[in-house]
Please model this.
Amino acid sequence: MADRKISKEMTAELVRAGIYEALCFGAGVIGLYATGKVIWIVIGIVAGLGFTVPAIIKLIREVKERDRASR
Model:
């Protein structure tokens, strides 16, 4: 069975992406309180996905590459 552990670098990148996403969401909440418009939360979520989705794609590629290399 293939080793499914992710590297320390990938773990750090995922944590960093999660922190950036939380900061974007926080900025959206601040925008909501400043203007009273919910669209700021949506903008914060979408902006945060710009960090998280690429990190998840890299993770999937790394796991697939390790799986192929172990065969």
